[in-house]
Design a protein that fits this description.
- This protein is mainly beta.
- The chain contains no helices and 10 strands.
- A hairpin with a 7-residue loop joins strand 2 and strand 3.
- The protein is elongated.
- It starts with about 30 loop residues before the first strand and ends with a strand.
- The relative contact order is 0.28.
- The N terminus is likely disordered.
């Protein structure tokens, strides 16, 4: 059997292959926090000196490398002001504290137990393992965005002076 190939080029064609290019892309580990309000109000229910509480839902996206990890952390970057009320750094009574618990993380593991907010160190909210990503199904989570609930509690010490007080909390996501 003989095969004959006939190549026909259109008259006037000027097509020419100049070469090929390789397109490269490096996807780095990444994280994004969003979807939470600029302010949160602690409020009291129940008995006269029951704790002040507030709930916050945080949305996040993350992608980690095969040997990496990611985390969402929290630190008080400014204590309550003005002076005379609650204090994160120097509570008026031993045991007074701004604390939080975490629940329902849809990617990674939420913090374990009760965490105490600090002005000198970040505390954990969510830990995310290696080779993990947001959305799209396997091998990623099906959630997009992912969420975690953070439930705050502040001791209601009778030593606090009446008035309005504000503190600044900074949430950070990091990924490798």
């Amino acid at each position: 059997m003989t095969v004959v190939a006939l190549l026909v080029e259109p008259v006037g064609s000027q097509a020419q292959t100049l070469g090929t290019q390789t397109l490269s892309l490096t996807l780095n580990a990444a994280g994004l926090l969003y979807g939470f309000p600029n302010s949160l109000t602690l409020s009291k229910t129940g008995t006269v000196f029951s704790a002040y509480t507030a709930a916050l839902s945080i949305q996040y996206k993350a992608r980690t490398s095969s040997g990496g990890s990611a985390s969402v952390t929290l630190e008080a970057t400014a204590d309550f002001s003005p002076a005379g009320g609650p204090s994160i750094a120097s509570p008026p009574t031993s045991g007074d504290a701004l604390t939080y618990t975490c629940s329902a993380a849809t990617l990674g593991s939420n913090c374990s137990g009760t965490q105490t907010v600090s002005t000198t160190a970040s505390t954990n909210v969510v830990s995310i393992g290696a080779s993990t990503c947001t959305g799209g199904g396997a091998p990623c989570s099906t959630g997009d965005p992912n969420t975690v609930n953070v439930n705050f509690s502040l001791t209601n010490d009778p030593k606090y002076k009446t008035g309005s007080y504000a503190a600044t909390l900074t949430f950070t996501i990091s990924a490798t």
